[in-house]
Amino acid sequence: MKLPAGLGWVRFRQSRPVVGKITNCTVGLDGGRWHVSFQVEIELAESPRHPATSAVGLDMGVAHFAVDSNGTAHTGRNSFRQLEQRIATAQRRLEHKVRFSQNWKKQKARIARLHQKAANTRRDTLHKLSTAISQNHAMVAVEDLRVRNMSASAKGTLAAPSKRVKQKAGLNKAILDQGWFEFRRQLTYKQDWRGGLLIAVPARHTSQTCPGCGHIEAANRPTRALFRCQACGHTAHADVVGARNVLARAHESLSGQDLPVAPVK
Domain span at residue 166? Predict the structure, then answer.
């Protein structure tokens, strides 16, 4: 490829065929590795039509990355947690080096490569899962999660200090390690490619609502994994119940009902 600004012709390794008319390209540097991405323009004869006819709801979590309404649990990689000890060790070694020295710069590059490895592992896992779900289901319903609010700090202030700060910090780290927003972004464009549909519904009380009778109560979920309705006695895995409620709310939204969520008891 020929780059502007006097760079001229540059050799690159092509990972996949470039199909369509190239409109522009972007060159970037991540973790010491250069990459180039091409944007192409393709004319479609007709709008794509998804080959599948099924619909699925997804309940996102930390213990399981996602549990669908069919009862299948999808486990995440927790890529940062796997490299966390190595990153912490590399950070401590950096503190003992002279700032901006050659050894300091080399150690900074090692830390950047570790973070890039965790990001690449997470992205690869999310791509494989989102592709499998998009290929098998014409409609995918997910929770409209506010990750920034969910992972906010719990330190509080000097006047009003918070409790269980260390536990909340660990939960925040686990939430950010999942990549929920990136997963939803991938599902969005992959469903568009295949002519499918992605619907985001409010996440409020999805794990406390009985899919059988509709009763909403905090006591319906006595433990993290168990759901037991206090009204009708329906018992199931709490994540599966949440996924079924997500799918039900998506159907309500499509039908135009969009029923309001009752307050929890």
Answer: 75-136+148-196
Which of 43, 95, 143, 217 is an active site residue? Answer: 143
pLDDT band at 168 (very low <50, low <70, confident <90, very high): confident
Query: Does pTM top 0.85 for this prediction?
Result: yes
The answer as to whether 243 is a domain residue is no
| Distance from C-alpha of 78 to C-alpha of 64, rounded to nearest angstrom | 10
Which is nearest to 247 in space by CA: 206, 214, 189?
206
Q: What is the pLDDT of residue 93?
A: 97
Exactly one of 41, 59, 68, 258 is catalytic; which is it?
A: 59
| 83 falls within a domain | yes
Does any domain span residue 221?
A: no
From the list 84, 239, 252, 258, the catalytic residue is: 239
143 is catalytic: yes
The more confident residue out of 258 and 201 is: 201
239 is catalytic: yes
Residue bearing tokens 């909403």: 216
Give the DSSP H/E element, type plus range, for residue 126.
Answer: helix 102-136
Q: 152 and 98 in one domain?
A: yes
Backbone angles phi, psi at 178, to 5 degrees: -75, -40
Does 8 share its domain with 101?
no
Residue 190 lies in a domain: yes
Residues 175, 130 share a domain: yes
59 noted as active-site residue: yes
What pLDDT, in 10s, does the model give residues 96-109? Answer: 999 999 999 999 99
